[in-house]
Amino acid sequence: MLKDLILKAKNILKETHPSDQDLAEVENGLSAYLEAIATERISDPVGFEELEHANRLLREVRRERSRRFAESQAQENPSAKLSPDKEKPTPQKEDVNISPQLGEDDAYDPLNKFLSSSHDPEAEAIMDTAEEAFYAGNYQKAIPLFEKVLQIEPGWNRAQEHHDEAEAFLRTGNIPSVALPPEAGKSYGKAQSAARVFRYQTALNYLDQAFDNLKEAGVNRWREGEELRQDLENQMQAHEVYQEGLSLLNQGDLQGGLAKIQTAASAVALPEYIDKASEIREDLSTLNEIADIVNLSGNIPPQKLAESRVKLDRLSVKYGETPQISRLRNRMDIVLPAVTAAVIESVQRYKRMGESASTLKAAKEAYSQSIEQLDILQSLQPDHPQSQSLRSSIKDSLQEITSLEDSLQRANQSLNSENRFFPRNAFAISKAVRTRFPEDPEVLDLKHRLRWYPITLYGGGALAGILILVLLWFGGRGIAGLVRQRQLALTPSPTATGTITPTPTISPTSTVTPTPTPERSPTPVYSPTATPVITGTVLRTLFAREGCYESYRAVGRIPEGAVVSLIAIPDRVFDNLNRECVLIEYRTEDRAIIGYVPLVDMSIP
Amino acid sequence: METKKFGPNKKFKLAEPLDTWLSYGLRDFSVPEAVGSSARVFSLDFPPLTGDFADYPAIKIMRPDKIDYALPLFRSEIAILDILQDVPGITPMIGLGYMQVSDGVWPDEIAPLTASQKEQASASNLVGTVDLYSMDETHQFLAELDTRISENWLAFIVLPNRWEDNLYLRCDAGYSRGDYNRTLPVSIALQAALQICEILQVAHEKGIVYLDHKALHYYWNEPRQQVYILDWNIGRQIKNGNATDVYEFDVLQFSARALHHFMTGRQAAGSVKVGPNNPEEISNAPHKYEPIWTYDDQKRLTQDEMDVLGQAIQGHYKTPSALAEDLQTLYNQRQSQA
Known about the structure:
The complex is a heterodimer. By secondary structure, chain A is of the alpha+beta class. Chain A is built from 19 helices and eight strands. The longest helix of chain A has 39 residues, at 452-490. Helices cover 39% and strands 20% of the residues of chain B. In chain B, helix 1 (67-83) runs antiparallel to helix 3 (138-150) and helix 7 (186-205) packs antiparallel against helix 12. The longest helix of chain B is centred in the C-terminal third of the chain and has 21 residues, at 244-264.
């Protein structure tokens, strides 16, 4: 139900010109429903959002109706209609300050409607009127009414208090701003706001309005307003004098301007005036200081001259080329060349000091001094021909110093994290700074902390060399031993099958027993003496065969250069082409080949 | 970021002013003090940012004649709203961007209380281009702020339109005519003040102070019984961590201006008046206020309430939570009496 009303109100408000009847209908619907909710005559739960929308839309609809009603009232009374041509400065002159009352529910509802009254009805009715007049600031009207109330009901404290307050306001004029009639209060507020932003005439106009409103309400004395008026008039006069002072300043008359502004400041003590006077005094004092410097006899300190030049330029921008400023500028132009030459010399001297400095600190100080001198030169003569090249050269040197300083710092940091006996990174990082500033205290300290590095580096190198030599010597010996062992291992041991010597040896003389016996002496036996192994080298890759040579089956392949052992055979053997063969044995890691090979393909030592 | 044209026949349209009037109940009041010194605020008709039920948002635009003054205030407000986006009770930023007006005249500061005034006060005749940024692009927006302003763009923020009762109208004696029991009962004043303290506490914890505690910056949502706060442009981020005096000053300003106004119908004597206040005015405000009780105050408030309020405006409370604690006690007393 409420949702429907909300949607209806929304649709009506979206229309460009909704009819009065539609507006009244939807307003009645919404207000009746909301009243029913407030008095708990409807038990349907309603959410906060719906309630908010209903309340908001009810106000919107009522607002539109009120505007139309107020418009029609204004048309009926043309004098009250807003006229855009009405006289300024009042930004608005509309007479409609409150939307009109359309129903009983938005009427002013006095307190006694809600509280049970114990007062006399006649006194209460007069009291309502008196209170209305009292809160409207119409004390002249309120006082007799309160008196009437008190005649009927003398013990009504509220009436007595308000009567006394109203009398006091009229007698003393000490009316607090909250007790002013509303129109007068608003005008007074506007007057104060205008005064805060220095619109004094506007403020006075508003204040006059406030006095008019008070007069209409029968109040002839208002101390706060009178004080504000007095203050505004003072302010306006002071402002005029201040403006005259500014005008004199613009004409270059600093002394005259200061006098006027000082007068304005003394009159109203406005911070703006006081600050301005103080500012001009400072500027005058600055001009005097500049004059003292440019008129110095003997050497003029370049720093002071540079500062004076900057100040003079600032004052020139501020006040223009006044005669005093022009005179000072001319005098400054006369002394400038000599001072500039001295500054250039100074820059070059500090630069040389920096280049030959033996410590980082000294070098930095020298370069900083030269930069300072260059800054002075810049202030004295911004377009000096040497200024740029000198500055860039000094900046490069300073950059180098900074980089060396940085390397020193990094070396120290690295030293803290590295092995103290072998700080290789710190040593490398700090090489440049150690070379450039060997006598710098920090460099000396670093060198002290790096002292183990060369000891470790060279001592370790020597030890490592010796160790390598020892290792090489032992290694060589070991290898030689291994070779010998290998060769021994390769010497064939006597085989289980005895070999027959190629030429049987017969004992040279048979021995006859001393006693002849019919028996023959036993046949001498071949002694199984080991035959020395003879080796040979195969001159080409060939096959060992079962016989000599081509017509026999190959038993194995022997590579060129292989070392083979010759096996003794009882007879010499030849192949079909009458080439002699020898019996050999060729051993590899996994097998041994025994066969005949041509003698011509062998090299036998 | 998307670029759009705005004007009478475009999808992005400016409408009636929202900074010249306030509403309470079913009536609207012309309130000249509501006009901001750095920005104008209008209703915005732009479907992607409009709710389902004709709830048009508000667009707060930098004043073209006060760029230098408004620029730091906008920068500050956007940065603060970006940080406080999800805090309950804050009127959150729902869009932001830059605007360049190519045609049309800025309307005068007129409260649209009649049909013709509505037309006269409307900014619907303004024509130009907007670059609209989403909330995710806030940092990019801020990075471009100086450049854009130098190129004659105006920064703007889009916010939900506060339709609720304005607490200035509900509490100020000039409007309520002393009838506080109907317009702003003390229990609601205490409840609203408690909620504001909670918002301030969160803001302080995030290094932000509000400072501009005039009653017309607070709205009371009756259905939700919730206070809403807007306009953070005088507020600032505290970059220096040790700045307890600034936070204490924020609590004092709240006490002297808003809390005193809610409870008595007027601000503490000597405090900065309601109006288009600038940051210097607030920073130069006194650091202590003397309590002055009128006949109405004594009739309306209990002794405990006057004691707490008196201590608050004399700078007794150093943090919002400390003040909230005492306000809670006073609220509980009121509830038990009811």
